[in-house]
Amino acid sequence: LNSCFVYKKGYRLELSANDIESTESVEFKDDCLRSCLRSLLSGGFMCRSLMHMPKDEVKCGVVEGMLRGFRGGNGMIKLTQIQGSNSFALIILDGVHEKKDFDITYYNEEIKDCFKMTTDERKNGKKLLTLDSDGAGMAVQPWTEIEFDILNDSVLNKTVTVAETSTGEVILCGKLKVKGSREEWERAKNGIQMSSKFCLTAILCILVSVFKQIHDLPLI
C-alpha cells in the first residue's frame, strides 16, 4: 500500500490501531487511484485507501447499476440514501471517449433497448448528473448529493443510461439492483436505525480532492 503514496518532503505519516495522521502529507499516485477505481467496476476486491475509511456500522439503502456497452467501455453507478435526507451518488466510467461530457439519465418506464430508444422513451428520462472524462477515458463523480428518492421498490430494475452530451448517443446502460441484503433494504425504507447524515457503507469513498489529481496534477 505504501508504494501508492508519494511522501512530501518534511512530512511523515504514522499509523497505529487508533490513530491516522493527516493525509495532507501524502499524494495518492495517479496509477494506483485508477486501479483502485477499476477494481469497483470488475467486482474485485474492495479498494480502501488511507484517504478515507467509511464507517461500516452506518446503515442505509443502497442500489447500484453496472453499466455496459456493446462497443466497449464500462461503468458503475451507486446510490445511497437514509430516510429524511437526499440521496448520494457515486459514478465511475472507464473506456469512454476522452475529454467529453456525459449525461447520466434514469428512466422510470420500461426500456426495451437502451441503445435504440424511441423519442417518447427519451422524453421520460430524468437526468441525474453530467460528468466529464479525462485524457485517459475515465470519468468519476465522487459522492455527490442529488435530489432523487431511491427508498422505494419502484426504482429497482429500472434503466440508467450514459449518453455523450454533444451527440445524445447512449454508450453505456444498466439496471438498478439492491446492494446488500433484502432485509437491510427494507429497514432502510422504513427508516430504522438511521443516525448519520452520510451513508457510505461497503464502498470506498473517494474524496474530490483525491480525484482532482487525475484532472489537475501531472501523472507521477
Description:
The protein is 15% helix and 33% strand. It is of the alpha+beta class and 220 residues long. The protein has a 5-stranded antiparallel β-sheet. It is globular and about 45 Å long. The two termini are 16 Å apart.
Brief write-up:
This is Apple domain-containing protein. The protein is of the alpha+beta class.
Summarize the topology.
Layout lengths: L4 E3 L7 E2 L2 E2 L5 E3 L1 H12 L19 E8 L5 E8 L5 E8 L6 E7 L11 H5 L1 E8 L5 E9 L12 E6 L5 E6 L1 E2 L3 H8 L18 H9 L4
Antiparallel strand pairs: 1-4, 2-3, 5-6, 5-13, 6-7, 7-10, 8-9, 8-11, 11-12
Mean pLDDT: 77
Q: Largest beta sheet: what is the strand line-up?
A: 10-7-6-5-13
User: What are the low-pLDDT stretches, counting only 5+ consecutive residues below 50?
Assistant: 50-57, 194-220
CATH class of the largest domain equals Mainly Beta
The figure for the number of domains is 2
In angstroms, what separates the terminal alpha carbons? 16 Å
Considering the chains and any ligands shown, give keywords for the structure.
disordered C terminus; 5-stranded antiparallel β-sheet; Immunoglobulin-like; 220 residues; globular; 4-stranded antiparallel β-sheet; alpha+beta; 33% strand; 2 domains; 4 helices
